[in-house]
């Protein structure tokens, strides 16, 4: 079954056609075990009935899914898509104010939470939302994935389901994922790479594994789980692979490693490739429907980043150079619809070049012998354990908490290359411990600084009056301006 055949079966609620009876994809949950196709079909149908009961017109409705369980999110998403709805994955750890912004921006009419056994329809609790105004999202099912916004307000990236299924089908074919393969779902449903883990095996006919929560949230437990039953594919960020390796894990000879979410250090790629069946380095922003390019490890790398390789069809690219000769990567071929309710941001990011709609990634690239090579960012966006974080988003939260504009958020890499967020508070009237406590109500966990530094002087500025982040980072590295800091 092709990706579009599978999409057609799902969106019409033809669960027998989508999931088969005795063959096709396998869904394994822990500790529940293998979920028979008939059981999955029944669960999806009954959850769909519950969604119908809580919304007056599910077709075209926006349904938020508030769970950290990838399987539960998948069940609600498939059920919602079969009814023509749009889903919005939300991490339960999202602070209340930010959660309300997401619900309001997306125009969600219902929120589904999980309470109980995830294999029973009774555990899925939809509740209706009132006084929400649906933005113009068209009449196609799909999803809205929220990312960090530079102004302090999260941006909702709207992707149609047919584009998602095109990405899943072409990606599975390009990487030769077959019915013999298995992949565990380890990523949060609010992180778009989770669609790869849940949908690739369903479309390609392989095994989707859903380990228990401890294996998803505790690295030590994950390492033990992988040792006991290694999958044929494992996807994670380079930061996560580095932590796992530090605990003694290495991929088995039958396991392919899919690195994603952030730049892959060359030396880590060498380490993984020493034992793995294959190492792939994937690249792509949420606006380009998860992944747009990939590179397979073929030779030893030195210092620096692994290449991000070549586009996976139907994605295309071009490098657009500025007056300094620096090249920004633009992606086309398979893109999101834009940012929900934010026309100006959409028009700024999605542009037309030679008659082709393209997305300005903000990432600087050059072309090398192995394809595209990442050079860095042109703005203040960083990746923290694979999650895109706008430093302006963090600074806006710091300003709300402190009531002061003399604050900065900077990214400082540690010795292993992992990014740490540092909050810099100018002036002598700040209590770092108080700021740390109050920031919990403003930002999700990965967006929160791990260190707070009080700077007894004004923040350095460029000649144009902008924050001079480079100077701030140099001072932190030199440890010449850290008096009074809280770690």
Features:
487 residues; alpha/beta; Rossmann fold; GMP Synthetase, Chain A, domain 3; 7-stranded mixed β-sheet; 5-stranded mixed β-sheet; 15 helices; 26 strands; 31% helix
Can you offer a commentary on this structure?
- The chain is α/β, with parallel strands linked by helices.
- Among the domains are: about 220 residues, Rossmann fold (3-Layer(aba) Sandwich), CATH 3.40.50.12780; about 90 residues, ANL, C-terminal domain (GMP Synthetase, Chain A, domain 3, 2-Layer Sandwich).
- The chain is about 30% helix and about 25% strand.
- It contains 15 helices and 26 strands.
- The strands form six sheets. Strands 6-5-3-4-7-8-18 form a seven-stranded mixed sheet, with helices on both faces. Strands 11-12-13-14-15 form a five-stranded mixed sheet.
- A hairpin with a 2-residue loop joins strand 19 and strand 20.
- The longest helix has 18 residues.
- It is globular and about 65 Å long.
- The chain starts with a helix and ends in a 9-residue tail after the last helix.
